[in-house]
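[Automated response] Your request has been received and processed.

Submitted sequence:
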Amino acid sequence: MKKLIVIFSISLFVVLGIPNLVYGLETQGGTDDRDLLKENSVNLDNPLGEDITPQSFIGTIIQGVLGIVGSLALAMFIYGGFIWMTAAGNAEQVTKGKNVLVWATLGLVIIFSSYALVRFVIYDLIDAPPETTDSST
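Generated structure:
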């Protein structure tokens, strides 16, 4: 029972006492320490620019990666079709060409599904509207 009281007392101090020590909520001489913290804080400018948000930055990266992946998928489709068309009746080459096409298609489905999931998380769950480009201006 004595251990339980000691553990409860320490827990109570941690929950109630530590934040007051860390944030310095005590007022001294009529000034609040939080005002001093605001005056002495350092504000860093966004190195990417004023209009760049984390969502738009991640969206730009995802668009670039999707362009590269789309190019690789096109190359795999061409490679698989070339293998299949030049098989000349060789069943092993036909199977290899079909497998390349099937796996390239499956890879594209997985990649576009992950893109849809990331877009849903970033724009719908975080409530950030996707950036649209207005071509009429």
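Summary generated for your ticket: The longest helix spans residues 91-125. The chain has five helices and two strands.
If you did not submit this request, please reply to this message.
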